[in-house]
Every structure is written in structure tokens, then in C-alpha cells.
Amino acid sequence: MPLDISDKLKVKLSWWLIGVTALGWATSPHFRCANLLMVPKFLGKEGRLYVLSFVFAAVYNGPGANLWYNLMETKRSMECVVELQVNHTGLLWHASTAPLRQVMDELVKSAEMLNAETHNVSEAFMQLNEQVASEDGYDLKQRPETGKESSTQQLYETKTKLRCETVIQTGLLRCTSHFQKMYKKCMKRVKLPLFRHLICLPMQFGFLCHTVKFMRHWCKERIPVDGNFGHMYDRVNGSVNSLSQEFSASVAYQEEHHEMLVGTEVAAQMREDVTSQLRQEGARLGLAVSFFRLLLSFTFLFVFFSAFRYTYQYCHKIGFDNCYITTYFRQIDARRREQNKQTLLPLLKEEVPSFIFPCKPALQRPERQHMVMELIRCIPLLLFLLFVCGLDHFIFTILFVIQNHSFIEYSYQASHHLSVNVMGTSLMAQLLRGTIGALNTSFESEVETSNLVCLPRPTAMTRQQYLNTCLPLVLLALLCLAQVYPFRLRRAIAAFYFPKREKARVLFLYNKLLRQRKHFLHLQRGRVARQARLPPELGMVVMRWCRRRWPRLRRFLRLKCTLCGTPETPQHQPCPNPDCFALYCESCWRVMGATCLACGPADPDLARESSEDEEEQGYAG
């Protein structure tokens, strides 16, 4: 979510920031101190917040991006598997129904062919029917009246006889007419009166045409009609009429489309839902990253306000981050030593863990406590990084196993052979051979596929990617370890700009430690006096007797300081009273003024001066 700021506005903001900074440096020591404090603040908690952004960016660009890619690969593999199943089901359905569809197509074609053959038979018989039923060449009135219906055989014989007589009579008329025409033409051509009668005389022999009348006897006696023709004609005519009127072939089928897979739409909807959900989560994650980047843009202001807050608390809270044994603290203690007053250095064992010596390079207890707390805060980040990397590796392992052990090769073979033989040579046999013969089908199918393209192809993170992911977290841990030294620098910077305030803070700390020392000695005196009045335990009596009887055992049977509990060393000072078994370390003996608390008198007050009200001091992390 980058800010949409024009270049002109950026220039104005830059000049405004430069002006405010210059004015602050010129007029306010607090502003100057806060500006210098930004350096150790960048190496402290505020700087770690900026490094934290690199940790999240490394997780996002490393295992997060690889995890997202593997999830997308899983989605692609699922979609491919579902689509492959749908395609296989379609191929199997096509292979199983192909013979039936082929038979249905052939039956439709055979029905059309049967209707065509029937039409051809009717057309062929129609010519014979027209010839038999035709009335050309005769007159039905010429046939004799018998009073009953004549058969087809009798009708056809009568028609044939009458047609034969009609043909003879027609020939006679044409022959006579032809002689007359020839005679007229001859008379026109020959002009000589006598010769034309002689020459045209043969054209008048038309009586010769009447000789064809002798053929009427042949028409009656030798008619060329078979005796079984009428009966056969009636049967064939009935069959053809029945074939054309009562017989028809049609094949009707209805094609219905059904879903081959009931869950296909459900699977498609599931893919859409998964894709939409992943896109929404990706958009939300991208929006969160953009918003986080926008917040990082204001890191400078956040660090400046934090540094200014430290400056304000340093100047207004005298106990804030007031736990350092500084040079001025040592000067006060040295001046009091010269005046033979109660001093604080070196500190007691119980007091050392509460203070920091800035010149010592080793980590000290308050710093270690704060450092451990900061390292503990890094544990959730480490667990988050391990979780994301582990989840990414787990998904990669599963997808890798699927890729190597889930290869399947599909092989489907199908064959269909059907043969129907119709014997005979009759018309019905030929018709059945043309229709039922459509069942003679032969189909072979072979399908070979595999799920190779549907296998997931996951990617694993390399060592370099793991290293790049872990480096920001390692840098964050190193900043937690090294933050103590920049934190010591904060007090030095503030003391440089506010020396009077630093002296007041050190004096307050010195006076407070004097009061604590007095109270501590008062409590310890009472405790030691009570312990001295109690009878010693049996184990202590035995250990004292062994130390007195065998002095060489003292290195193994060591006592502790009565005041602070430090184990015995050669520098420990025993009580001068032979009846007192109290033992003191060098610092406690010096603080007690070479006086045993167990058997000595009560001491006067060790410190009287105090310059400030008491306020709890602590380490500012």
C-alpha cells in the first residue's frame, strides 16, 4: 500500500523536515539529544522492529512463497485428475456405445433402402399392370356377355384375341389405303392416257390385302397366352399392392443427453471455490504485507518519538535508567573516603546484581535479564519460522511421494463383432438381407493414456533459500545480544547534554544506596544476633571439630560469610573472639568496621545525608 505522493509534495515535505530539524537543533537541547539517541535506539527494540519486517519478508518470500506454489500445484493436479477422469469416462462411454450407434445408423439406412426397393418393385410391376389392364387395341363391348364375372385369365385371353383381330383389321385398312394412294400418285405422274391406265393397273390390286383375314383363325386357335398367367398375375398383383400399401419400414430412435459423471459439476464448483478461496487469502495476505510496509515507512518517526520519550523521562524521572556506577559515583565515594565517611565501593555481593558498571565489557545481571526477555520474545518467531518451514517440507514430501509412486498408465481395448446370415434368393430374402444385414458390425477400440501430466511437480527450498530465510532471525538474535552496549550509550549521550541532571541523578543513587546499606546492615545484625543465640546444629559442630582437629580439611570443609554467604577464601576474616565462630569476607569486614555483628556492640548510624526523595531506580530496556 505505497503512498501516492507527487514529486512536488515530496520536495515540500523534505524541505519542511529539514527546516524543523534545523530549528530543533538550534533551539532545543532535548531535540539534539533525541536525535543522537536515535542511533542506539535503531540498535535496540525499535531497530529490531525494523529487522522483524525482514524476518517476515524472508518467511513470505522463502517458505511462504514455496508453500503457495506447492498449494497451487496441488490445485492444478486435482483439477487435472478430475478432468482426466471425465475424459476417460467419455472415452469408455464412446467405446461402449459405438457398436450400438453404428447398428442404429445402419438400420436407418437399411430402412430407407427397403422403402426404395419396395418403390422399385411397385414401379416395375406398374408397367406390366398397365399392359394387362390397358384397353388399347380392342373394344370391351366386343367381348361376349356371359352373365358372370370373368377371371383375369379369361379377360386377358379375350383381350389378346380382340387385339389380334384389331391388328389384322388395322393392317387390312392400311394396306387398302396404301394401294389407293399409290394409284393416285401413279396417275399423276404418268400423263399419257392409255399408258397410264396400263402402268397404274397393278395399283388397283387392293383385293390382295384381304388375304390377311385368313390369320384370324390363328388368333383364335394359337393365342400366345400361358394358361397359368391369370392366376400368377392375381397373386403378384396382390403382393405388390400389399407391399406398397400395408408395408413400410421406418426406424425411430430418440437421443437423450445425460451427464456421464454425476459429480462433474460438483467437482467444477469445488475447483472454483478452492481457487476463489486461495485468491481471497492471497489478496488478504498481500494487503497485510502492503499495510505492514506502510507502517515501516513511519519507522523513523517511531524511533524519534521513542528517543524523545527517553530524553523526557531522563529529565523528569530521577530513578529512570539510574543504575550505573559512573565516574562521578566513584568520585563521590573517593571524596567520602578521604573524609573518613562511610563509603559504598566496592559493593556488597547482594548489591552488585542491581547495578551496571559501564566500563566492564561483560554482560551484567540487569542487562542479562533484559537480554533474556528479548530472546524469549524471539522464540515465537522461531517457532513460526520452524512451523512454516516444516509445513512446507511436509507438503513437499507428500507431493514428492505422490509424484514418484502415483504414476498410472491406462490401457483400454474393446472389440465387437456381430454377423447375421440370411439364406435364400427370394425377394424377401434379399429384403431381409438388406435390413437385418445392418446388424453385421465390427468395431475395435484401443485407448492408452497416463496421468503423467497430472502428477504434481513440487519444488523444495534450497540451502541458500533456507539460509536467506534464517539470516534475518539470526540478525535479530544478535541484536538482542548486542543491545546492551548501545543501551549504555544512551545514558552517556543524555549526560553529555544534561550534566547537571546527571550529577543530581548520581547523587540520588548514592544517597539511596547509603540508606539501603544502613537498612541492610540493621537487618543482618538482627539476623546474625538471633543465629548466635541459637545452639549450633550437630553437623556444624562436627564440621568445626574436624576443621580444628585436621586443619588440612579446611579446603574441603569451607564455611560461608556470615553476612553475605560468600564461600570461604584465604581473604576471609574470622572473628577475633575465640568463642565466636563467625566468618566475614573482606568487603563485609570492611563495611562492618572490623566489628563482629554476632558478638560486638551495636554501631551508630552509618549514613545521615540524603539529597532527594526516595524513588525506585531501574534498568530502562
TrEMBL record:
GO CC, alphabetical: membrane
Superkingdom of source: Eukaryota
Main location: membrane
Domain Dendritic cell-specific transmembrane protein-like residue range list: 320-510
InterPro entries: CSR-E3_Ligase_Protein, DC_STAMP-like, DCST1_C
Gene it is expressed from: DCST1
Membrane topology qualifier: Multi-pass membrane protein
Signal peptide: none
Transmembrane annotation, as ranges: 15-37, 49-69, 285-308, 378-402, 466-485
UniProt entry keywords in alphabetical sequence: Membrane, Transmembrane, Transmembrane helix
Subcellular location(s) of the protein: Membrane
Domain E3 ubiquitin-protein ligase DCST1-like C-terminal: 560-601
Protein name (database record): E3 ubiquitin-protein ligase DCST1
